């Protein structure tokens, strides 16, 4: 009598993906507290803010009125909206481009062996750790049109001092330069760390091949810094888009009402000065959607550049192969060599081409 095969019972000491239950417990213990804090202090306020944007609510009133998309229609229809958007874009583009270009230039300079370079590195990074409000107070004296440092310097050069606190254009330039000075140390340190982690043999090979400094920088150095540049473009963009303290201390969004008002400062004005929390939540939601779209686009660009590309034969070699093939085809066509010789040469040249 044949015995039936024994049934293999599933193991109960492993989870659904074949890992021991202890690994899942360790994972939950490590990620659980952080995930709970993230949900409590980031995602839940985000959802509440989006929900509040569909209501008209005075923060001094216990009740809120549902208005649907009314706040969004009002924001797109207001006369000052596009000036505020323009201020935000101009401030963000100037600070992102300026801090990244100057940070890279300073990192290239101080990556060399120079006397006192550690002291200069520390001095460049120090403003980044200073409070933005303190920086704003200090630079009020720098740009003061009556006795500021800029006024004294321009007087010595025989130039007129712009009225930074009355002219909206110069006021925006003032807060942009102030934030650029504060944030420059961040991009400088990140680029400096990236430069010190590069492979020196690539630059040495370029120098041996006779490449100029500009060619080596453009063809060898910049491609290696591309991941760092993508990272900085995202982080600096997010930080610049949300600057509040310097603008609040130096100009309070003025002059002339909205001369330096950005979208972040508009959220503060509407929510805590005009007591329109629903409208302020609307502006914050629009900011979130814009930043999300820009960040996703930048991340996709980074992923596309990191994807492996098919190897291409160098242009000069491809040209030689095509020239040999054309010459060989002409010889065979006019009958200057036998068909066997054509076959032999074709095989050899195919091997060379490969």
TrEMBL record:
Residue ranges constituting the ABC transmembrane type-1 domain according to the UniProt record: 85-298
Q: Which UniProt keywords apply?
A: Cell membrane, Membrane, Transmembrane, Transmembrane helix, Transport
Query: What is its subcellular localisation?
Result: Cell membrane
InterPro entries hit by this protein: ABC_transporter_permease (IPR051393), MetI-like (IPR000515), MetI-like_sf (IPR035906)
User: Where does the source fall among the domains of life?
Assistant: Bacteria
GO CC terms for this protein? plasma membrane
* GO BP terms, alphabetized: transmembrane transport
Membrane disposition: Multi-pass membrane protein
Q: Where are the transmembrane segments?
A: 21-43, 89-110, 122-143, 170-194, 277-299
Subcellular location, principal: membrane
In which family does this protein belong, per the annotation? Belongs to the binding-protein-dependent transport system permease family.
Q: What is the protein's given name?
A: ABC transporter permease
User: From which organism does this entry originate?
Assistant: Rhodococcus ruber BKS 20-38
């Amino acid at each position: 009598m044949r015995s039936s095969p024994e049934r293999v019972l599933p193991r109960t000491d492993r989870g659904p993906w074949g890992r021991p239950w202890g690994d899942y417990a360790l994972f939950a213990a490590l990620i659980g507290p952080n995930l709970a804090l993230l949900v409590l202090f980031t995602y839940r306020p985000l959802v509440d803010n989006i929900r509040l944007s569909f209501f008209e609510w005075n923060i001094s009133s216990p009740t809120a009125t549902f208005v649907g998309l009314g706040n969004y229609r009002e924001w797109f229809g207001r006369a000052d909206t596009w000036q505020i958007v323009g201020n935000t874009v101009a401030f963000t583009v100037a600070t992102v481009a300026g801090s990244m270009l100057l940070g890279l230039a300073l990192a290239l300079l101080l990556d060399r062996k120079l006397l006192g370079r550690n002291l200069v590195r520390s001095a460049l990074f120090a403003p980044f750790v200073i409070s933005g409000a303190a920086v704003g107070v200090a630079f009020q004296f720098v740009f003061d049109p009556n006795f500021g440092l800029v006024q004294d310097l321009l007087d010595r050069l025989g130039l007129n001092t712009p009225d930074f606190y009355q002219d909206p254009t110069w006021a925006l330039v003032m807060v942009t330069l102030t934030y650029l000075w504060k944030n420059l140390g961040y991009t400088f340190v990140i680029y400096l760390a990236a430069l010190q982690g590069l492979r020196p043999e690539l630059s040495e090979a370029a120098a041996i091949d006779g490449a100029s400094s500009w060619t080596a920088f453009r063809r060898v150095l910049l491609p290696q810094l591309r991941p760092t540049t993508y990272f900085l473009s995202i982080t600096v963009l997010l930080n610049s888009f949300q600057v509040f303290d310097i603008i609040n201390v130096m100009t309070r969004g003025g002059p002339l009402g909205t001369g330096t008002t950005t979208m972040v400062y508009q959220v503060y004005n509407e929510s805590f000065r005009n007591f329109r929390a629903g409208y302020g939540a609307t502006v914050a939601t629009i900011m979130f959607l814009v930043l999300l779209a820009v960040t996703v686009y930048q991340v996709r660009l980074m992923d596309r550049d990191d994807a492996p590309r098919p190897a291409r034969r160098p242009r000069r070699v491809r040209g030689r192969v095509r020239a040999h093939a054309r010459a060989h085809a002409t010889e065979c066509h006019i009958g200057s060599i036998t068909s066997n010789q054509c076959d032999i040469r074709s095989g050899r040249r195919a091997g060379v081409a490969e």
